[in-house]
Structures are given as structure tokens and as C-alpha cells.
Amino acid sequence: MQKTKLFILVAAFAFFMVNFAAAQVKDTLLKPADTSKIKLSKSLDTVAKKPMTRKDSMKAKYVNPGKVAGRKAVFRSMIIPGWGQLYNMQLLNDGYGTRAGKSQVFQKIYTGGKIAAIYGGATALTLSLMDSRKSYKRFLNEAQYRQDNPGKKLDLTQYSDQGVLDGKSLYKRNSQIVYFSYGLLYAANIIDAYVAARLHFFNIDDDLSFRVMPSVINADTMYGLNLTPVLKLSLKF
């Protein structure tokens, strides 16, 4: 009997605590927060008027003009071959072209020659491709005709059956080489534009010099001095 009463009291107490906790959670969710009591550790005006320290200024990222110019030249050359070279020619007008004592006219002529070489090479490759494809089709038709008509010749009467097959393979390989050369020319156009744009911002004036002189490295050890002969390179900008 006493165990039954004790069990009823414990159940009633547990039911009361659960209802009380649920009421507290509901009151917390429904009651809006009083934002007027929230205090800012620092006012917005103080933060806005805070001067930039040296530590903050050092966080600014350095922009390499040569790297930016190289990206632009690559992007242009990938879209239209030779456009990157034209961009590098425009860079000569910013004053860097005469820094090394060279004439801008000569550099512009040299850059224009590279553009002419790009399109001249593309034209030569196109003519070679057209000739190879034409000859390949001619030998292919001859080989197909001789295969369908044994003992007969269509056009290339001076070639044997094996000669016709060899000629067909030769011109097919030539066409593949031309396609590969197109890729090389395209890649060379991009690489040249990128290198020229990066070198445009390198300091190569007459004040750049270097000196090589003998020296020694003194490495202290627990047993005494250890002198190692070396060559010392000094660069002067």
C-alpha cells in the first residue's frame, strides 16, 4: 500500500515538472527579445572612424602588373590568334618601351612581324592541307576502283596497286601532320603573347649588372672552423 502511494506521488511530481518545463519553453519562444537592453561593445561611429593601422594596410594584396598583362594577352590570343600580340603592341605606349633605350618603332615592327608570321604560317598550313586532302581523295578513289574492278586502272595508271595504297597512306599522314601543326602554331601564339607581356614589365635597363667574386663560408663546428670555398654573386639594380 505504501509502495502504491509512493509511486502515485512520484508520477504526479514528474507530470508537474514536465508541464512546468513545457510552459517555460513556450513562454521563451513567444516572448520577443528586448533589444533595448543589448549594449554594443563598440559604437558603429567609433569603428567607422578608426584609422587604418600599418598592420591593416599590409593586408592589401599586391597586384603584379606583369601578371595581369600576361593573363590579358593569353585570353586575347586564345580567342583570336595575334590579338595578344596587338595588346602587347599597345603596351609599348605606356612608356616602358623606351626604358631600356630601345626604339618603340623597332619593337612594334618586330611584334607586327610575329603577327604576320602567325597568319602566314596558318595560310601555308591551310594550302598544304587542301593539297594533301585532294591527293588523298584521288588515291582513295583509285584504290576503291581497283578493288571493285580487278585488273583495271582509273586515273593513276603509272602507279601499281601497292603504290596507290602507299600514296593514300602518305597523304593521309600529311593531313594529320598539318592538323598537329595547327595546334603547335596556336600554342606558340599564346606562349609568345604571354612571355612578351611578362617581359614588358621586367627591368632590363643599363643599371642592371652583376659581379661574381670568390668567397668562403665559415661553418663553426664543435671541432673547430670549417671553411668552404664558394662563388659570391652580387646583383645591382
From TrEMBL:
Residues in DUF5683 domain copies: 69-237
Keywords per UniProt: Signal
Leader sequence residues: 1-23
InterPro entries, sorted: DUF5683
Name of the featured protein: DUF5683 domain-containing protein
